[in-house]
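yo

u said u wanted the structure for the complex thing, so here. seqs first:
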Amino acid sequence: MYYTYNTRTKLYKMMYWILPVVSLILLCLLYLLAVASNPIILPSPELIIQRFISMVSKPIKGVSIWGHIGASLIRVLAGASIAWVFGILFGIMIGWNKTCDALFGSVFLMIRPIPPIAWIPLIVMSFGIGEFPKILLVFIGCFTTMVTNTYSGVKMVNKEIVNVGLIFGANQSQILRDIVIPTALPSIFTGIRSTIDNGWKIVLAAEMMGAATGIGALITRGWNELDMAMVLVCIIFIALTGAALSFLIQKIERVLTPWDR
Amino acid sequence: MNLDENKVLELQKQYKKQQHHKKIKHFVLCCVGILSFLLLWQLLSMSGLVNEKYLPSPAAIFKTFVYKLNHKAPDGNTLLTNIWSSTQVSVLGFLFAASIGIPLGLLMGWFGLVDRFVSPVFELIRPVPPIAWIPIVVVLIGVNIQARAVIIFLATFVVCVLNSYTGIRLTNQTLINVAKTFGASNFETFWKVGIPSALPMVFTGARLALGGAWMTLVAAEMLASNSGLGNMLSAGRKLARPDIVVLGMVVIGAIGAVMISGLNRLEKHMLRWMKRD
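structre next:
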């Protein structure tokens, strides 16, 4: 009995380290097979590495790859930070005041289900493809997320605590500052985290539909020139930047909200 | 306490009346909000403050809506054909991805070895926004329904796996121990304890995924398609027809809302056992 148990755990431990390696090897083999069956379209690994090196060392359209990523990041940050300010204010307003909720919340609920990407044509028609329309798009996408999160955070406030505050003679602004906003903070931070993720996706879409700089513009360029190696390298950069952003925001959240640990 | 029963009943009635009044007031204010929004919009475009070339009035959009019901111009399909084509692709892609992604996520969350086998590959796909796949998929498969279905699959799959995984990981250890104490095998515990307790998270994932699928589909249709609502949007943009564009946005928003509320209904129905009053 003891013996079988021991061999089983040993086998388990072995598999625990072997399986990830096997799956990665399988993925590589699968990709090589796909390249072999479709050599014109799919780039071989050497080609991808070559393209990677050339993209990192040589500027594209006069801007280096880091410049393109930076341009996209600045758009995300600009749009998102404006959305934080207005989203939190609007969310608290419709979450706290019932009349505001009915008057403005209904209009907000009507507009919210429109995906941010669907705004692109309208915004491009009105404002062209410069810097402002992209920031506006990121803003629209982040604003809805921010308002929804703030709103549900404010709605989570315990009625009894508010009543205690009222009994002890707090006025509306004190209740808002000392009770409602602290309760809503975790939800607001969740909102901030998802706006960064969303913003990164939206800016990509906005740049793919027309832009001079930005990582999304590079993807479209690779697509138009049927340069799939370039598209793949862009995807790698996008994934890395997205992952780094999530990681960073998590770290920042940990510092800012120590009670959440 | 000498509150007599009649008085209590009366107070109760009064309270109910008050609540009823509050509800009516809320509803009226909602209507006032939406109507004044539309009216303001209409007045702004009629007064010329907002150029109709960029943002048409609600009345003009409604006219276009009626026109598009049985006219193919300018994008080549009637509104209903567009709606049908978009909904069909997104629902099919969503169902396909959910039926693979949810079980996979559950298995990954419960069985360590499955997790070890799948995660390396999964972690590679996860951070890529679904929109970034569009060029590769379109070049490989072409501008057709299959390509769009694959893109939606990629968009939906990741969210479904992630949420089912987290859901089953959060299973209460006490419940698992109870099941094991009563002699349940690992698989039985997984089936009868793990999965039911993961269901709320699974539904959250499904809802997020459906929203994502709809958004990604619109992007895919705008970038590479010859039918669907996204195509209508980009045709409206190319032909400088803002009424078509705004009509498309409204329809996309409405269908998205309907799909999400359908899923909410299903969730309420399937999770009714969780509510214990």
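Chain B has a mean pLDDT of 86. Chain B touches chain A through 58 residues (CB under 8 Å).
cya
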